[in-house]
Amino acid sequence: MTRVAVVVFPGSNCEHDVAAALAAVGVEPVLVWHGEASLGDVDGAVLPGGFAHGDYLRPGAIARFSPVMAAVSQMAAEGAPVIGICNGFQVLTEAGLLPGALRRNEGLRFLCEPVSCRVRSARSVLTSTCEPDQVLELPINHYEGNYTCDEATLRLLVENDQIVLTYEDNPNGSIADIAGVSNEAGNVVGLMPHPERAISPLLGSTDGLPLIESIAKSASAWAGRARRPAAPVAN
Fold first, then answer.
1. Considering 14, 86, 130, 149, which one is annotated as catalytic?
2. Residue 153 belongs to a domain
3. Fewer CB atoms inside 10 A, N or C side of the chain?
4. How far apart are alpha carbons 233 and 9 in whole angstroms?
């Protein structure tokens, strides 16, 4: 079975939601404490939402130094799927695994509401089962979700098809209405909305399922590559 690590920092509060969403699409979630040096035998990683280390200094600024982040960075460099949701997105930007930064929402308001998001790129590990221009209704829950970057970075994001999701009605002031971005390879993605909270009619929406299914598909594909038998060593 495909296995995906869900990294738990002190202050994470969405790890079990993410684990339940992964399990719902046939993935075995593995909770990994931030103090571990290894992610174990997994095929991808998700950094969930919450308030890692209490968001002291700024969100993600302390979490980037957690021992597990070296393993997350290595997994990202190898091409495995790495996803950061909300606070996890903030951690990935602080760790330099994604471009840009997240700052306080325009109007200095905490936002907790459903929003409409448009899929801008289907080449990422988060959107591979989606259609370009598909609109998804997803919940947000953040105070520092206002994505920002300089003009040169924004130009590269556009040129390299790294803008994964945009808001239809920008709630927080993010530049270019950005709700999620990827690295250039498309295997590391951060997004502010919470797809794990939109996987059932009981939760009000199933629009998060295509994103969770994309993670499962990408992790499964990575497992197939990573676990091929190694070539015998010549004596």
1. 86
2. yes
3. C
4. 40
CATH number of the domain to which 170 belongs: 3.40.50.880
Which H helix or E strand runs over 154?
A: helix 151-159
Residue 142 a catalytic site member: no
In a domain? residue 218? yes
Domain-embedded: residue 36: yes
Query: Is 16 one of the annotated active-site residues of the chain?
Result: no
Reported pTM: 0.94
**Number of domain units in the chain:** 1
CB 117, CB 135: distance < 8 Å: yes
Q: Count H helices and E strands in the chain, helices first.
A: 5, 11
192: nearest Cα among 65, 77, 59: 59
Tokens of 218: 């990408």
- Annotated catalytic residue within 34, 53, 142, 194: 194
Catalytic, out of 94, 144, 196, 213: 196
Residue 233 lies in a domain: no
pLDDT per residue as tens digits for the range 103-148? 999 999 999 999 999 999 999 999 999 999 999 999 999 999 999 9
Q: Is 113 a catalytic site residue? A: no
